[in-house]
Write a structure and sequence with these properties.
Length: about 140
Amino acid sequence: MALFRKINAPPPLSRAEALACIPVRNDAIQASQTPEGMVRLRYPLILKPWIAELAQRFSGASYVPPSRQLELDELGSLTWNLIDGSQTVSVIVRQFCRQTQVHPKEAEAAVTRFLRELGRRGIIGMAPGGHDKAD
Protein backbone atom coordinates (compact mmCIF):
# COMPACT_ATOMS: atom_id res chain seq x y z
CA MET A 1 0.00 0.00 0.00
CA ALA A 2 1.51 3.29 -1.08
CA LEU A 3 1.10 6.31 1.17
CA PHE A 4 1.64 8.75 -1.62
CA ARG A 5 0.28 8.28 -5.09
CA LYS A 6 1.91 10.05 -7.94
CA ILE A 7 -0.61 12.22 -9.73
CA ASN A 8 -0.08 12.16 -13.44
CA ALA A 9 0.06 15.65 -14.88
CA PRO A 10 -2.01 16.29 -17.96
CA PRO A 11 -0.03 16.34 -21.18
CA PRO A 12 1.31 19.78 -22.11
CA LEU A 13 -0.70 21.84 -24.55
CA SER A 14 0.47 22.27 -28.10
CA ARG A 15 1.48 25.77 -29.17
CA ALA A 16 -1.80 26.17 -31.09
CA GLU A 17 -3.87 24.99 -28.09
CA ALA A 18 -2.00 27.34 -25.74
CA LEU A 19 -2.50 30.33 -28.07
CA ALA A 20 -6.22 29.51 -28.29
CA CYS A 21 -6.69 29.72 -24.49
CA ILE A 22 -8.38 32.74 -22.94
CA PRO A 23 -6.64 34.37 -19.94
CA VAL A 24 -9.13 35.20 -17.17
CA ARG A 25 -8.36 37.46 -14.20
CA ASN A 26 -8.75 36.04 -10.71
CA ASP A 27 -11.62 37.87 -8.94
CA ALA A 28 -9.56 38.05 -5.73
CA ILE A 29 -7.01 40.34 -7.39
CA GLN A 30 -7.09 44.03 -6.59
CA ALA A 31 -5.64 46.14 -9.40
CA SER A 32 -4.78 49.80 -9.04
CA GLN A 33 -2.80 52.34 -10.99
CA THR A 34 0.40 53.98 -9.77
CA PRO A 35 0.98 57.73 -10.22
CA GLU A 36 3.25 56.80 -13.16
CA GLY A 37 0.36 54.99 -14.87
CA MET A 38 1.61 51.45 -14.22
CA VAL A 39 -0.58 48.66 -12.85
CA ARG A 40 -0.14 47.46 -9.26
CA LEU A 41 -1.66 44.09 -8.35
CA ARG A 42 -2.44 42.89 -4.84
CA TYR A 43 -3.05 39.16 -4.72
CA PRO A 44 -3.51 36.56 -1.98
CA LEU A 45 -0.50 34.41 -1.25
CA ILE A 46 -1.21 30.76 -2.02
CA LEU A 47 -0.38 28.68 1.04
CA LYS A 48 -0.22 24.94 1.31
CA PRO A 49 -3.52 23.80 2.89
CA TRP A 50 -1.93 22.53 6.10
CA ILE A 51 -0.07 25.84 6.62
CA ALA A 52 -3.23 27.87 6.02
CA GLU A 53 -5.17 25.71 8.49
CA LEU A 54 -2.43 26.07 11.10
CA ALA A 55 -2.29 29.86 10.65
CA GLN A 56 -6.07 30.10 10.94
CA ARG A 57 -6.10 28.01 14.14
CA PHE A 58 -3.51 30.25 15.81
CA SER A 59 -5.07 33.51 14.58
CA GLY A 60 -8.68 32.58 15.21
CA ALA A 61 -11.47 34.69 13.77
CA SER A 62 -9.06 37.55 13.03
CA TYR A 63 -7.15 35.53 10.42
CA VAL A 64 -6.49 37.44 7.23
CA PRO A 65 -4.74 35.47 4.49
CA PRO A 66 -1.38 37.01 3.60
CA SER A 67 -1.13 38.90 0.36
CA ARG A 68 1.58 40.08 -1.99
CA GLN A 69 1.93 43.08 -4.20
CA LEU A 70 3.29 43.15 -7.73
CA GLU A 71 3.99 46.34 -9.66
CA LEU A 72 4.03 45.80 -13.40
CA ASP A 73 6.30 47.64 -15.81
CA GLU A 74 5.01 49.36 -18.94
CA LEU A 75 4.81 46.18 -21.04
CA GLY A 76 3.30 44.15 -18.18
CA SER A 77 0.71 46.87 -17.60
CA LEU A 78 -0.14 46.90 -21.31
CA THR A 79 -0.59 43.12 -21.31
CA TRP A 80 -2.66 43.20 -18.09
CA ASN A 81 -5.00 45.76 -19.63
CA LEU A 82 -5.48 43.51 -22.69
CA ILE A 83 -6.73 40.64 -20.50
CA ASP A 84 -10.51 41.03 -20.53
CA GLY A 85 -11.65 37.41 -20.25
CA SER A 86 -12.83 37.19 -23.85
CA GLN A 87 -9.67 37.45 -25.98
CA THR A 88 -7.41 34.51 -26.72
CA VAL A 89 -3.68 34.58 -26.08
CA SER A 90 -3.02 34.91 -29.81
CA VAL A 91 -5.25 38.00 -30.06
CA ILE A 92 -3.48 39.53 -27.06
CA VAL A 93 -0.10 38.78 -28.67
CA ARG A 94 -1.18 40.47 -31.93
CA GLN A 95 -2.46 43.55 -30.09
CA PHE A 96 0.71 43.69 -27.97
CA CYS A 97 2.81 43.41 -31.13
CA ARG A 98 0.84 46.16 -32.86
CA GLN A 99 1.04 48.55 -29.88
CA THR A 100 4.73 48.01 -29.10
CA GLN A 101 6.18 47.52 -32.60
CA VAL A 102 7.92 44.35 -31.35
CA HIS A 103 8.64 41.45 -33.73
CA PRO A 104 5.78 38.90 -33.57
CA LYS A 105 8.00 36.04 -32.32
CA GLU A 106 9.43 38.25 -29.54
CA ALA A 107 5.94 39.47 -28.64
CA GLU A 108 4.65 35.90 -28.42
CA ALA A 109 7.56 34.83 -26.22
CA ALA A 110 7.23 37.86 -23.91
CA VAL A 111 3.45 37.67 -23.54
CA THR A 112 3.31 33.90 -22.99
CA ARG A 113 6.14 34.05 -20.43
CA PHE A 114 4.34 36.87 -18.61
CA LEU A 115 1.00 35.02 -18.64
CA ARG A 116 2.68 31.84 -17.40
CA GLU A 117 4.14 33.78 -14.44
CA LEU A 118 0.77 35.37 -13.62
CA GLY A 119 -0.79 31.91 -13.75
CA ARG A 120 1.89 30.45 -11.50
CA ARG A 121 1.07 33.12 -8.90
CA GLY A 122 -2.68 32.48 -9.18
CA ILE A 123 -3.35 35.96 -10.61
CA ILE A 124 -4.96 34.61 -13.79
CA GLY A 125 -6.38 31.34 -14.99
CA MET A 126 -6.75 29.98 -18.50
CA ALA A 127 -10.08 29.04 -20.01
CA PRO A 128 -10.21 26.81 -23.06
CA GLY A 129 -10.73 28.93 -26.12
CA GLY A 130 -12.40 28.30 -29.38
CA HIS A 131 -11.40 29.91 -32.59
CA ASP A 132 -9.92 33.40 -32.70
CA LYS A 133 -12.31 36.22 -33.30
CA ALA A 134 -11.29 38.73 -35.90
CA ASP A 135 -9.79 41.74 -34.18
